[in-house]
Write a structure and sequence with these properties.
The chain starts with 8 loop residues before the first strand and ends in a 6-residue tail after the last strand. The longest helix has 30 residues. It is globular, with a radius of gyration of 17 Å. Helix 1 packs across helix 8 and helix 4 packs parallel to helix 5. A seven-stranded parallel β-sheet has the order 3-2-1-4-5-6-7, sandwiched between helices. The chain is built from eight helices and seven strands; from the N terminus they run βαβαβαβαβαβαααβ. It is of the alpha/beta class. It has one domain: NAD(P)-binding Rossmann-like Domain (Rossmann fold, 3-Layer(aba) Sandwich). 41% of the residues lie in helices and 16% in strands.
């Protein structure tokens, strides 16, 4: 199969943030036809309008997921960036945070992935799906119960989906970012929360959005031979 994305349709759900924007830029250079969804920040998303169609969607809602999938007439790839750290300091708020985390970090992404895979299967498309987890679902980090557990569930669900669709040549993989100088961890890095990672040699630098973009591009390659895997892009932090 050709190792090119020229002209193929790819949806990037929640792709208007820092990690998503870098990925949009890379895929656009490859000639892919892109659709980017956003939840609430329309102004940020519209900055990508020159290289991608921009759609508002809350992927925890079935009607929004369907509307998003319908924007691509010949869907080849789906990348789901959406997520929420779901951290609370008050233990009495943990239950609500866990319920929210399940909706945003597990149910929405997994249901969208399953619906996209079914659409590809019905059309006979040999496609690729990339979901996003976190190093916190690979390693053990105190205080991350709500977020990490939901993302760990997502990883296992992705492997199941990959197995269900391997005969259809629909590949499903997961990226688990580490401490990235973009996206959710950006504010934490600015506050010095992860300075000890550098000081103690856990990582030699913080991750960049471009590191994630290259990993996504790898999984989307039409000639890729990988499915059902979790790729940690974390500089070794989960070790």
């Amino acid at each position: 199969m050709p190792s090119t994305l020229d002209g193929v349709e790819i949806i990037l759900a929640g792709g208007s943030g820092g990690l998503g924007s870098a990925t949009v830029e890379l895929l656009a250079r490859d000639g892919a036809r892109l659709v980017v969804s956003y939840h609430a920040d329309a102004a940020r998303a519209q900055k990508l309008a020159g290289v991608a169609a921009v759609v508002q969607a809350d992927i925890t809602k079935a009607q929004d997921r369907m509307r998003l999938l319908e924007t691509a007439h010949n869907l080849y790839g789906l990348v789901v960036f959406t997520g929420d750290p779901s951290r609370v300091k008050d233990p009495s708020l943990l239950e609500s945070a866990m319920r929210h985390a399940q909706e945003v970090n597990y149910l929405g992404p997994v249901l969208l992935a399953r619906e996209a895979a079914s659409l590809m299967q019905a059309r006979g498309t040999h496609g690729a799906i990339v979901l996003f987890s976190t190093m916190q679902a690979v390693g053990v980090f105190a205080g991350s119960t709500a977020y990490a557990a939901a993302k760990a569930s997502l990883q296992h669900a992705a492997r199941i989906l990959a197995k269900e669709h391997r005969k259809d040549n629909i590949r499903v993989n997961v990226i688990a970012p580490g401490v990235m100088a973009s996206g959710m961890a950006e504010a934490s890095i600015a506050a010095g929360k992860y300075d000890h990672f550098l000081a103690t040699g856990i990582v030699h630098r913080f991750g960049r959005a471009e590191d994630i973009a290259r990993a996504v591009r790898f999984f989307l390659d039409p000639d890729n031979y990988v499915t059902g895997q979790v790729l940690g892009v974390d500089g070794g932090a989960a070790l």
